[in-house]
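Morning run. Coffee first, then this:
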Amino acid sequence: MACMSNKLICKSIILILILFSEISFSQTNNKQDWTHYARLSGHGIGPKNITSTVEKAQEQGTLGIEFDNDITGRYDSFLDPGQKLNDIKKAAEAAHKIGNYAFIYMAGTECITGNADRSAHSIFKDHPDWVQRNIDGKPAVFSGGVAFWVSKGDEDVWISPYAKEWRKRYMEIVRQIAATGIDGIYIDVAYWMCSFEGWENSWASYDDYTVAAFKEKTGVDARKDFTPGDFNNPNFLKWVDFRIQTMTDFFKEVYENVKSVNPNCLVIPEISPSVDGDAVKCGADSYELQKYSDVITHEFFINTNTGAKRNTFDWLTYVSGVNTLRAYDESHATWLLSYSWDHEKNTNPEDAMKLLSCAQVMAGGNFWDAPGHSMAGSNDYSLRKEIFGWIKGNENLLYQQKKSINPVGVYFSPSTRNYFMDDYVKSYYGILHLLLNNHLEYQILTPRTLKDFSGSVLILPDTKIISENETDIVKQLYKRGVSLILTGETGYYDSDRKTKKENDILNFLGDNKNENRKYLYLPECPGKKYFDTHDTSLITGFYKQISKILPNLNTGYKITASFNVSTQPADLGDKDCIYITNLKGLKGFSSCIPVAEDRIKVEFEAPNVHDIYFIPYLGKKQKITAQIKSDAMDKSKNIISFTLPPVQFGGIVVVDK
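And here it is:
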């Protein structure tokens, strides 16, 4: 009996130890899923090249292999997907065999009929009612030359998501692909046509299906009750909202169909544009689609489609844009399909690749190398392998979960962007420029994350439209001790874009002054002014304007560097990191090598001495010697300072705690 009792006790102890070890592991292992560590590359696929393609991708260091196997975007396979489905299954098996992941490309609302000029059948010939149309009834049908992916003799059409027969078939194919065991379905260009020449301001589609759906939902006749582009007309604003909701609902249905068959299969929208007013025109809003995706691939541009064309100001805007996409994506990864070089004169592909990849990974994005304006291949395979190797070697510093330290919050307002478009985006980007130029840590907030802001200063940059719920959250933050900076016409308009009789936020702030919390109203909108003029005197001027409400930020890292160096600190738990991208002296269409920055100085307070390292981009870890002195006001604290060696492209400062 005693022996039996001892056995039970031993078993109980073992069970407790197992449970404890599992709990302990779950608490300490915060490694995220593979999408956060992805190193992406695109590849063509065919029955004969699957194995060799997977092996080549593995040798290059790819984690996450994209295959071009477009079923829905080609009319022949839309009708009969059998061969392509078989290839997808083989691709998934080949990738899984070597411990990698594979995802498959398919089009959204675009479909091409090859050699349609010599065929009695095409998608438009067979189904003219499916096709999107402009306000004059012209169908969104294009021929070879309209884009590099449309060959001579092809017919390229853009389909209304309200075409019921097409949508039913589309979802059937989505389920068939998910059933192959592929790791993800990558859906490109699920848009209202707004990109080809003559369609940029079409605000399509005015086909019968879409017009009927809009009439049923709102009672408004899209062909008669407003002029496309008239934001002063409330019926047009309904059209704006309807078009965005339509594409969001489309991806919701895709998501539900995929998960019903294979819960482990990822839904991966590719979206371009992402931040500015063109996102409103195309209707596919990255911020909204995050709810119905596992990871979004952002085909993100600033002014030009390749990095080698950008000047320093464009690059700083680009970095601000990537940080905005990271804010959209929240706990999801941020994949970035973008292009470094396309045979621009006076540049070379190697430097362009280094600059682009550095800017992306330092902002927390996942680098997708592609040449020119395509998805597959590389400008330099040996360099890509080196870049992927460096990223893998430092992936925990780049991609593990991070916390802001003591940031200035900057609010991104989708509703203001949707109704005031690029006018608002200039103000928003301009504020990010001014903070970045002054090396102030910032955190971008959205309607989903605003209530959780824990910093001490919040900026509402020309946030013209603020809902009642948003207003309540801002008031709560202010009462909690958060200081506020309002610029431009913040709070001037209601959710219907009508001017308010009273500005609720300004009235509230005026009635609730307190020495423990402050607010500053800058009606001249310094962000927009700086974005329009590039006047560098505004950088120091802005800091002086806001300095009286910034004292609480001094507990973080004080960074001294040139205006055109991006620095962002983050708390990784057992260490702090500062992510640096040097963008000095870039003129566009010339050298992609920034002017080396040799004056980056960092200072911070800490009770103990820390080990400090610098990892230059594509380089190896270097130990940094710091100077230490006691705080004159508080002897228990040390002021630690150090100067980095010259920085070419960028790098990571690591401060062990």
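The CA atoms of residues 107 and 500 lie 43 Å apart. Good start to the day.
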